[in-house]
Amino acid sequence: MSGERRWRFALSKRWLGYLGLLIVFAIACGFLSHWQFERRDERVSENARITGNFDREPVPIESELASLDAFSINQEWTPVLLQGRYLTDEQLLARSRPHNGLPGFEILTPFETQDGRVFIVNRGWIPTGDAQDSPDHVPAPPEGDATVVARLKPGEPEIPGRSAPAGQIATIHLPQFAEELGADRVYTGAYGLLSAERPSAETGVLTTKPALDEGNHLSYAFQWIIFAIIALLGLIFGLRAEYRDRNPDDPKVREALARERERAGRRRRTDAEIEDELLDRAGA
User: Fold this and answer.
1) Which neighbouring-strand residues pair with 9?
2) Which terminus of the chain has a smaller tally of CB atoms within 10 A, N or C?
3) Hey, where are the domains in the chain?
4) CA distance to 43, 119, 124, 210, 246, per residue, from 205 (Å)
5) How far out from the chain centre does Cα 283 lie?
6) Helix 251-283 crosses helix 217-246 at what angle (to 10 degrees)?
């Protein structure tokens, strides 16, 4: 029988079905691998943006935010410089703020700039009190004129149904400050995480540079490629196995089977020799 006829079974509906499944699976693996590569590229770009913004020199807030509601995600972590005074009487606490697994609050203090605009400054995290659902102590900002460096962060959306006691807020929803302090002078596009202030005063736990991690996207991308290769090798192995079953008289098949029997025999003799050696040692 010719070689082509021996392989004719590979064109059966069953094997063509296997081939179709392999193609679909390979396409899916390729799509998922490409998606993971894209996710990694996005993470790398995001890390570069964070590092670039975080390491920038502070600029006056009016240079970075052209209007009260201006903010782009590309500006996140950018340090801005403010000069003016804290409005301590308007300070609020953002509740339900965990830190290292502990419950607590974040101190939100409005800062009035020299031109009369108001920017919300997050002066750090403080823990929940020992005996009540409020802090035992809230650090006070410096009195009088001050210079502040804060890093831009976007405000948070309002969550329907969530409320907070007097002096507290459920989310850092900047329009809420605008309602209290005047919509025509409060920055509602972004607030700031305190980085430094002069004169210095006691603060909560300040936010540090975020940990930059590319995640597992690259390894996942290669895993999907490997899965596709494994599926292809499985199909090839299955074809070869069925070919051998269908063509035991093929000289190459007989030669391969003979080699396998020879290797199996050597393994058995080697195992027996090891067993004899162990018995000899035990009897010594």
Assistant:
1) none
2) C
3) 56-198, 248-284
4) 27, 20, 5, 14, 74
5) 62
6) 110
Residue with tokens 């003016």: 84
Burial (CB < 10 A; 0-12, 13-18, 19+), residue 245, is exposed
pTM of the predicted structure, to 2 decimals: 0.72
Please list the pLDDT of the chain residue by residue as tens digits (284 residues).
555 666 777 778 888 888 899 999 999 999 999 999 999 999 999 899 999 999 999 999 999 999 999 999 999 999 999 999 999 999 999 998 999 889 999 999 999 999 999 999 999 999 998 877 788 899 999 999 999 999 999 999 888 877 787 889 989 999 988 888 887 889 999 999 999 999 999 999 998 888 888 888 999 999 999 999 999 999 988 888 887 777 767 667 667 666 766 666 665 555 666 666 666 666 55
- The three-state secondary structure class of 223 is helix
Classify residue 26 as exposed, middle or buried by CB count within 10 Å of its CB (0-12, 13-18, 19+).
Answer: middle
Side-chain half-sphere exposure of 97, counting CA atoms within 13 A? 26
**Contacting residues for 120 by C-beta, under 8 A, at least 6 apart:** 108, 109, 110, 111, 172, 174, 177, 186, 187, 191, 192
